[in-house]
Amino acid sequence: MASDGDPRGTSSILAGAVMAVLYEVSGRSSDAESLIHAVLHLEQVLTTGGGWQDQVGGLIPGVKIGRSAPALPLQVTVERVELPEGFMEMINKHLLLVYTGKTRLARNLLQDVLRNWYARLPDIMLNVDALVSNAELCARAFRTGAMEQLGHCLSTYWQQKKCMAPGCEPQAVRRIMDTLEPHVYGQSLAGAGGGGFLYVLTKEPEQKNTIQRLLENTQGLERCSVHSVQLDTKMFSVQWETGIPDDR
Fold first, then answer.
1. Last residue of a domain, which of 46, 80, 114?
2. Domain named GHMP kinase C-terminal: which ranges (predicted)?
């Protein structure tokens, strides 16, 4: 379950799971594309300010890139990105998730982003174009197996996030990122950038224990926890469970 203020985009993924179940129990068919748009509509109704990137990331397996044209009604398309042989396994050995303990409610961050967008500030408009270009560069790095370039895209992405929502980087998170900088190709806060979870692409494989010790030995960062993660390659599914367990 998503915690209050969870910054990983889990609320959109949870909404997608709920919508999939509702489609199933009502006898209606659904696919990933319809769920992506259903969650987008739901988030607008709930005024949480969510877009479509989180459900694309969580409902579609593997590596993918989502695109939408600047037109209404909004139509999201998703392209699965094919990886070179062995690159998936390599990524899983270099990818880590760091819990920083610093969270903020994504809705508040997104309100700042929307205000900046509506103001049509030149820096914001340029940054939006740069976000699109960086996403395409990231997809290319995946296709070619360029680990260092992929890390550079991650760090660039975080700088672009900060441009969209100034103040989204807690001081404690900055300390963590500075501490990890020599050991990683790239890093970024996940989701809306609330500071709860940081994902890093390490220069060396299998660095979970090394990174954990590094943080534990840095004053003020002892409570951070490091977790191994893997890219999910399985499509989501809705399963029926028959019978009600007797807890009496």
1. 80
2. 140-213
Q: Which residue positions in the chain have pLDDT lower than 50?
A: 1-8, 248
Q: Would you state the pLDDT for residue 112?
A: 78
Question: How many structural domains compose the chain?
Answer: 2
Residues 89 and 4 reside in one and the same domain: no
Q: How far is CA 43 from the centre of its chain?
A: 17
167 and 216 in a single domain? The answer is: yes
Q: What is the rounded distance in angstroms from the CA atom of residue 134 to the CA atom of residue 146?
A: 14
Regarding whether 133 and 173 lie in a shared domain, the answer is yes
- The reported pLDDT for the residue numbered 106 is 61
pLDDT of residue 62: 94
Residues 13 and 135 grouped into a single domain:
no
Residue 227 host element (H or E): strand 225-228
Which of 167, 71, 164 is closest to 115 using CA atoms?
164
Of the candidates 229, 167, 220, the residue with the CA atom closest to the CA atom of residue 198: 229
Distance of CA 224 to the CA centre of its chain: 19
Is-contact 147 201, C-beta < 8 A?
A: yes
Give the pair of three-digit tokens for residue 151. Answer: 């890390």
pLDDT at 244: 59
